[in-house]
Amino acid sequence: MKIAICPGSFDPMTLGHLDIVERACEIFDKVIVLVMSNSSKNSVFTVDERIELIRKCVKSDKVEVDTYNGLLVDYAKNNNATVIVKGLRAVSDFDYEFQQALINKSLYPRIETVFLPARGDNMFLSSSMVKEICRLNGDISPYVPKEIVNDIYLRCKGDN
Ligand code: ADP
Description:
Radius of gyration: 15 Å
Structural class: alpha/beta
Shape: globular
Order of helices and strands: EHEHEHEHEHH
Bound molecules: adenosine-5'-diphosphate
């Protein structure tokens, strides 16, 4: 059984993230969406809230949602996962992701990182962009799964 991990901050999940998770399900037997809680980013949603939002969006029974605050490769070892799936957006993602993939491989040689190219219409989509649009009272519905549009509005919309 091939187990893959889709790691990230998911603060909150976007259609870009969801697309990568769904495509990973087409390739692997089990996909763990892993909310990394050790990110240096200031998050808007707590880890538990982010997990809840992901569970509202993801339908496949191949998917498990979990969290971890240690090294990704240690989580992989402990959960028999041998693949890390990352979405690659415009060239800006490449340097960082390539470095991460090499470090993870050197820490745990059994691990492979698989890059899936972002869909054209998700190429410039990020959680930060969604939060900014929401704060400025713009329409976020083209960018996030419909199940969580209201949750994001309730938390992020501005006062203006
Ligand atoms: P962000 O960079 O938006 O804060 P995360 O850290 O949660 O997102 O990213 C988790 C994973 O999802 C990373 O592999 C990232 O490349 C991927 N990802 C993020 N946004 C998109 C997108 N719009 N399309 C494809 N993959 C994406």
